[in-house]
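Reply to dn_fold:

You asked what the input looked like. This is it:
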Amino acid sequence: MPPGIEQSTPAELAGLVGPLTDLPGPRYAGLARRVRELVALGQLPPGTRLPAERDLAAALGVSRVTVASAYRLLREEGAVSTRHGAGTVVETPPVDAVWSAPTTDPEVLDLAHAAPEAAPQLVPAYERALARLPGVVAGHGYAPSGLPELRAAIADRYTARGLPTDPDQVVVTAGTGDATALVVEVMLQPGDRVLVEHPTYPGAVQLVTAAGGRCVPVAVDAGDPDAVVGAAHLATRQSSPRLAFLMPDFSNPSGARLSAAGRRRLAATLWQQGVLAIVDEVTAELWLDDDAGPLPPYAAGLPDAATVTVGGLSKSVWGGLRIGWLRTDAALAASLGAALGRRQLSVGPLDQLAAAALVRDLDPVLAGRRQLLRERREVLLAEAAARLPHWTVPRPSGGLSAWSTLPPGRSSAALAAAAAPLGLLLAEGRAFGTGTAFDDHLRLPFTLPPARLRTAVATLAAVDSALAGGPVARHPARPVTVV
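and this is what came back:
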């Protein structure tokens, strides 16, 4: 068998598929659908070789024609391919999911992006930064890995959270996404595999794909968040990923949060398998319930080189403050910092001075942000219960959004398309997965002010009713074309 190809035995796949007699429609279509579901759930990672048609047919107790027809349908959809010397191999099918860019139009109700307005401490921080600026402008203004005082502030914050850190382990970037992109660009080679939570942040999948990597999805469930540990262990053994992208705290969009024991076990699994973990902590300190307070950072207790922790101020302070960072082993930080310097000489010093002031006094900023999000979470849940009672909208214990399950037959892609002309932006569920998964889910941020959040849910309910064949309610906002 060619290197990098994993084999799924007939008995294993038959056990995962289950009895075809229980599935609606033709048996070949049911088999193809079950294979797609297994791929979406991460139980058949990309690169897995499926059994030969005759062998799988015997294991399932069906004709070879049934299996051949299912494989043909999967090939036509791009879910599998036939490779010379490897047989039928699972692929990650392409998907054109709608995830609109943020808009500056004040009339648009944006539920596509989980980004509240600026924290009240932002402007005073810039005022202090302006007062400090004369001491900086005498020099050239370049700080390739970040201003020393900001790196020191970030290092001290990690140390206070239980992860001892020196400033030379920190690299300042233009946002959390920029930090993740830097690691992917430097550490990933074309064809390398990257373990990702499923669902996950769309930007992570896009970064991996752009670098020529292949995502290995591992299912996450907010109802049983630690189950990802066993799934990740299996996926690493089967697929040998180079990197992993994780959000241990209030994962976007599922809201799943690993327990203290779960993150230790997952960290040990990836470290032992030689997988470098990129850990996104942008929402780590945005717990909203008393029983969901602080947990140790994922990287605590690990060798520094086992993890690259990325963070930033976009969720805790403001999305327009493009300051992020990464924290890792000092030698790896120096290498990543040098690569960043080749791409951009420095992040703006005024932004860094403001960020340093904010990081040094971050606790009151976070307290205010948590209170704001608690209040808006209650508004969203109340409005959803009243206007969308047939939806399942969970109560997240932290983060900025709820990962809702749509009623049977409803499509998030259809909702997004129908809502856009009414001035409501939605991010369809498929944007948060690989392949065609999660069209039956919709992320609902609770970041808009209460009045606009109520209007947004009312508009969403009107669209939902229209798609279900009910009466269409009037929308108070003016129509807008989203491109």
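The longest strand covers residues 193-198.
Hope that clears it up.
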